[in-house]
Every structure is written in structure tokens, then in C-alpha cells.
């Protein structure tokens, strides 16, 4: 357990023992849509260039019910910064991301939110070449080290395609003694790229000492949940489920595989990543997902790429919470036509079928 100094801040495992924990993810997509980050490389230079935009989004997610503030270091690793020719920004980027997230976590009303350090898929892992393992491990070590120095309460490793890469991440994370969350990303093949089912992969992570294991990203609620239930049955630790908020189907189970037959002007006919709007889940669908996952025994819940504050608020409300943003949850009783308030004009209320 960590503390903010006055002993009022519970740690991740303590919170999970008492009820669900919500972790809002999806920072890259949301900041891209707001005009602060470029799709493609998806490198979070925004934490250096527009820190106030990152701070604002952290605040919005906490107001909407997120218990965790995840430092925006996803794709802020050495390989991504090499790719854009800015390796010199690696350390300042990570330290800034952590400082912004810490400020947001500490200012949360009541009990401060948990500050999470974050590492992810390096895109360098290849199962047949163990020479890269040392390079990957060093990338995790430097980022996890900055997270610890930045005051992280927990470390999240996410969106891994290979169990073996996630195991390297976990090994580095465990040296810190902080609670660990490790989530795999499941592609169209329904197995990890090193051939494990979701259940097998997560069991391996649990056996290696992860505190929370599960799935994030890639899949929408409909195509993530069946595999999350298999994970729940296979492990005894806490399980995480953080889908993307898109209407994926059996035929198109991932957001990269979704197509939009109603539109003929999308470059290369692939809505991923910036034209997924028509397939976005509405808030009620996210609420239903949260309830079903919770009823299946999942206690660490969130939403990944595509998440917006209204999704997170609905998730929180579906789990019985009433976060600060619930003050503005819909109330149609005073709508001029669809409302029920006795003072509304009958002429307008009777016109609803023509609207
Ligand atoms: Zn994602």
C-alpha cells in the first residue's frame, strides 16, 4: 500500500479487495481526435508540447470515475522515439508524463487516484531472436525506473501480442515491489502471436507473479468478453478487461479489421484508426459491458483506444458509482418536447413524433 502522506490513499490491491477499480485508457486516440497528436506513429510528444491538454484529459477521466491516472508513456519508449528521430526526448518525455499524471492523481477530490506507470509492446520482440530480449528488457527497465522515481503507486504493462514479451516486462516490474497489471492484446487469430490462448497466456503471467492479468485494446466489448471469461476461469488472481469502444463482430473481431460499407471515401477502405466513428459504442453499450464483466467476476475494468469521458462515466455508474461528472448525467424530464415537466407546452410535447 502506498500513501499520500496522511494515510488516506488505499493501494490497488486493497481497492480491488473492496470492489471494482476503473482505469481509463485511450489517451492516444482521444488526444489525436482533439488535434494534439499524430495518428500513425502515435508517439505521445504531447506531454512535452501541450502538457495542459494531457492534464485536462486526466482530470476529465478522473471526474468521470477513473480510479487510476495512467501516465501517458504508452509508445513513449526508446524504439518509438528512435523512429521519429528524437531519442534525446525519451527521458524528459517520460518524466513529464509522470509529473503531469501525479499532479492529476493528487488533486482528485477525496481520496487521491492511483498513479500508474505504464510500459507496453516494444514492436521489437521476435520469438526466434533472443538477442533482442536484452534490448527490450533495458527499454522496460529505464521506463519503470522513471515511473518509480515519479512516485508511481502501481505499474501497468499493456497491449502485448507475445506472452514472452509480457513476461520480460513483468519480470522488470516485479523488481519494484509495486502492484502489477499485465494485459494482453488479442488479434484476429484469437491467440497470442506466440500461440497461447488468452487463458493460457494470462495463467503464465499469474504464475510469474502478476497481481492482475487480462486483456486490453484491439477488441470491442462483444469480442473481448468471451475471452475475458475464459481468463477468469483459468486464473485465481484479479482479472482486467479494457476493450476498445467499437462494435466489433465475429467476422471483424478487432478494430483494425472493421470495415464501413456505408462509406466510400476512407483511404484504403480501412476505418482504423481515425474513421471508426460510425462503429463507436454508445455509452449504454459500455454500461452493459461493465455490468456483464463485473457479474462474470472481473474487478479491474476500463476502456482503451476510443474511450471518452462519457464512456467512463457510464461504466462507473453501471458499477454503482456516482463520480463528480454524474452531476451532468442525462435528465430528459425538462426537455422541451420529450420532457415530462408539467409546465412544458402541450403543443410541443404532442409534436414529438414529428421531430
Ligand atoms: Zn488501445
What CATH architecture label applies? Alpha-Beta Barrel
Q: Name the CATH class.
A: Alpha Beta
- Structurally, the number of domains stands at 1
Proportion of residues in helical segments: 25-40%
Q: What is the beta-strand fraction?
A: 5-15%
> Cα-atom Rg, whole angstroms?
21 Å
Order of helices and strands: HEHHHEHHEHEHEHEHEHEHH
Under CATH, the topology is which? TIM Barrel
Number of E-type strands: 8
Name the strands of the widest sheet in spatial order: 1-8-7-6-5-4-3-2
> Which molecules are bound besides the chains?
zinc ion
Superfamily at the CATH H level? Homocysteine-binding-like domain
- CA(first)-CA(last) distance: 55 Å
Main beta sheet strand tally, sense and closure:
8 strands, parallel
Number of helices: 13
Q: Residue ranges: pLDDT <50 for 5 or more in a row?
A: 1-5
Summarize this structure briefly.
Helices cover 39% and strands 11% of the residues. By secondary structure, it is an alpha/beta fold.
